[in-house]
């Protein structure tokens, strides 16, 4: 595909980058032996368990399991997309990111970068200027009627998209290329018969900033009776509504100061709350709360309060938010729910009651566990035996999404109390049939193939070449392992192929090659596996492991042929020759004491 970043460049980037510098600029690190440590930025902890290895160019938290390369850290910590993280890392090294597909491919991707950001800035300036023009009087009157002051409107960069089909297109689309860029930015729409028209018309405009303060999209509130009442930018290379939160950049300091964030549903709710001094509010952008939303917020605070209307729609939205939040809850993270009186929203309520009364409501928000069990208990009759059984069944899929730890145990204890089931028995019931079988790479063996070597031996081999990539050059004959059906053998061979084909790769580069595949997670674990053999003479230990795998291969192939001979009564001439060779080699490798 044109425009993709070549893997060879990713390899070079991870070879030249220093993950310690990248992380230390955001999370202060302290030297601890040959590695560096810090309290994990991805979960609350008092004792540092977050380790950064300069040798492997890899980070790992032994507390919550977070791990990755320098690219992965930027993606997780800064919530960047993969291309953006690569651009950021390359920029630190003074490198230009190449694109496959030549100039055309690069130009296509460039629409997602600085050029589009500049277009968004120009559009924001255009919309602000329109408030001072005669047609903008209607927007000014609307904002005044909603109680928005000039100061707060300027602070949020509010503007106006005038009525008409092509005001923005004529102002910023000086030629065909410029008009194409406006369409690519989501600001204009291309007509089927040719030409372009403005996406936003006769609307109060709310610029949407990403967490870095860059304008990446817009939201528009219509002034007339047109539909939809609120219109967001479409998905673009810059804007993804399932990832961005309105007002987050402005609210960052207030969130840290208050120790919590308030998540509301509308732009005007954020603006009105800020005008009354409640500065720690953000809004989703016309979509349900997503996992990306939560992870981004948890970078700034461990305490989230969702604010919803008390009507049926508000309750349904709250329940969806609860379902999304459960997998993201780890020790230290808290989620609460505030339901407003029917007919009220944060905008109207804070104007009616004032900031202090609104903050008092926040303090009375229902903790997620309380809201969870209150809602479930309301759907059953706890006075009936089958009602309590129904409660357990309703809770099972929800609690199964909570990470193992103190919170999960406390939720189970509360469920045991409500259902009147012994906690030990309940834990067994909840896990019965719910534990996923371990996913291990590699094909299952065929019947009669004989006993298998413990998978830990293959895992050890993978860990060795992953943590010490130079070992791959010592495997001069990989043919012995090709037909082995040991769990993990296909991954071992894939890593060998990669390292032998691209000498000089480090641990981080190997893992990046498997990003997005089923092998990424197992490799990340093996990159930090502290097996005793890895603390010894690794070269000698690796030769020993290869020897064991070689003997295992001989044994498996021998027993497969012997099994066929027993079942079918004969072998082909070629198979007989192969069996004789294998038996001779097996005898040669067998210890002397076992030959008598």
UniProtKB/TrEMBL annotation:
Zinc finger (CHC2-type) stretch: 40-64
Co-factor remark: Binds 1 zinc ion per monomer.
Domain of life: Bacteria
SUPFAM superfamilies in the cross-refs: DNA primase core (SSF56731), DNA primase DnaG, C-terminal domain (SSF117023), Zinc beta-ribbon (SSF57783)
SMART domains tied to this protein: DnaG_DnaB_bind, TOPRIM, ZnF_CHCC
Enzyme Commission (EC) number: 2.7.7.101
UniProt entry keywords in alphabetical sequence: DNA replication, DNA-binding, DNA-directed RNA polymerase, Magnesium, Metal-binding, Nucleotidyltransferase, Primosome, Transcription, Transferase, Zinc, Zinc-finger
Pfam families: DnaB_bind (PF10410), DnaG_DnaB_bind (PF08278), DNAG_N (PF08275), Toprim_2 (PF13155), Zn_ribbon_DnaG (PF01807)
Region (Disordered) location: 432-453
Reaction equation(s) it catalyzes: ssDNA + n NTP = ssDNA/pppN(pN)n-1 hybrid + (n-1) diphosphate
Biased composition (Low complexity): 440-451
Record-linked Gene3D superfamilies: 3.40.1360.10, DNA primase, catalytic core, N-terminal domain, DNAb Helicase, Chain A, DnaG, RNA polymerase domain, helical bundle, Zinc finger, CHC2-type domain
GO molecular function: DNA binding; DNA-directed RNA polymerase activity; zinc ion binding
GO cellular component: cytoplasm; DNA-directed RNA polymerase complex; primosome complex
GO biological process entries: DNA replication, synthesis of primer
Oligomeric form and interacting partners: Monomer. Interacts with DnaB.
Notes concerning its domains: Contains an N-terminal zinc-binding domain, a central core domain that contains the primase activity, and a C-terminal DnaB-binding domain.
Similarity comment text for this entry: Belongs to the DnaG primase family.
PANTHER family registered for this protein in UniProt: DNA PRIMASE
HAMAP family according to UniProt: DNA_primase_DnaG
UniProt name for this protein: DNA primase
Species for this entry: Candidatus Muproteobacteria bacterium RIFCSPHIGHO2_01_FULL_65_16
């Amino acid at each position: 595909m044109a425009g993709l970043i070549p893997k060879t460049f990713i390899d070079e980037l991870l070879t030249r980058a220093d993950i310690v510098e990248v992380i230390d600029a955001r999370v202060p690190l302290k030297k601890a032996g040959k590695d560096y440590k810090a309290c994990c930025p991805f979960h609350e902890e008092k004792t540092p368990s977050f380790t950064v290895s300069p040798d492997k160019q890899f980070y790992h938290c032994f507390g919550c399991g977070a791990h990755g390369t320098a690219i992965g850290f930027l993606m997780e910590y800064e919530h960047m997309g993969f291309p953006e993280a690569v651009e950021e890392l390359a920029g630190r090294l003074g490198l230009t990111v190449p694109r496959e597909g030549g100039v055309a491919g690069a130009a296509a991707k460039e629409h997602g970068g600085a050029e589009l950001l500049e277009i968004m800035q120009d559009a924001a300036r255009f919309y602000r200027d329109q408030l001072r023009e005669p047609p903008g009087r209607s927007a000014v009157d609307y904002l005044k009627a909603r109680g928005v002051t000039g100061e707060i409107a300027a602070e949020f960069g509010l503007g106006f998209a005038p009525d008409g089909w092509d005001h923005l297109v004529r102002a910023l689309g000086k030629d065909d290329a410029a008009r194409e860029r406006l369409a690519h930015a989501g600001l204009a729409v291309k007509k089927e018969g040719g030409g372009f028209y403005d996406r936003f018309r006769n609307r109060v405009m709310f610029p949407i900033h990403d967490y870095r303060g860059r304008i990446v999209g817009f939201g528009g509130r219509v002034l007339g009776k047109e539909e939809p009442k609120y219109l967001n930018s479409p998905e673009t290379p810059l804007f993804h509504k399932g990832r961005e939160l309105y007002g987050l950049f402005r609210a960052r300091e207030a969130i840290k100061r208050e120790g919590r964030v308030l998540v509301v549903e509308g732009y005007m709710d954020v603006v009105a709350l800020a005008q009354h001094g409640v500065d720690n509010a953000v809004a989703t952008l016309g979509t349900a709360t997503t996992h990306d939303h939560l992870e981004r917020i948890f970078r700034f605070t461990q305490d989230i309060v969702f604010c919803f209307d008390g009507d049926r729609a508000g309750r349904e939205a709250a329940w969806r938010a609860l379902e999304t939040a459960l997998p993201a809850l780890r020790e230290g993270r808290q989620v609460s729910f505030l339901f407003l009186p029917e007919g009220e929203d944060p905008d109207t309520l804070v104007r009616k009651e004032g900031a202090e009364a609104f903050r008092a409501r926040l303090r009375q928000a229902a903790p997620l566990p309380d809201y969870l069990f209150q809602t479930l208990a309301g759907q059953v009759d706890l006075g009936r035996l089958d009602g309590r059984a129904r409660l357990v069944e309703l809770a099972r899929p929800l609690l199964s999404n909570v990470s193992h730890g103190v919170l999960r145990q406390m939720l189970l204890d509360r469920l045991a109390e409500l259902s009147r089931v012994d906690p030990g028995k309940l834990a067994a019931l909840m896990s019965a049939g719910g534990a996923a079988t371990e996913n291990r790479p590699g094909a299952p063996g065929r019947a009669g193939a004989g006993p298998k070597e413990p998978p830990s031996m293959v895992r050890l081999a993978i860990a060795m070449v992953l943590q010490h990539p130079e070992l791959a050059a010592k495997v001069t004959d990989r043919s012995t392992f090709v037909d082995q059906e040991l769990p993990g053998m296909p991954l071992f061979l894939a890593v060998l192929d990669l390292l032998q084909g691209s000498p000089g790769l480090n641990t981080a580069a190997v893992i990046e090659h498997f990003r997005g595949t089923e092998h990424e997670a197992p490799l990340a674990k093996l990159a930090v596996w502290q097996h005793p053999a890895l603390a010894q003479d690794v070269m000698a230990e690796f030769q020993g492991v290869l020897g064991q795998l070689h003997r295992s291969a001989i044994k498996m192939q021998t027993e497969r042929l012997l099994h066929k001979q027993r079942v079918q009564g004969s072998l082909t001439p070629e198979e007989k020759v192969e069996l004789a060779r294998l038996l001779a080699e097996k005898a040669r490798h067998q210890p002397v004491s076992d030959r008598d």
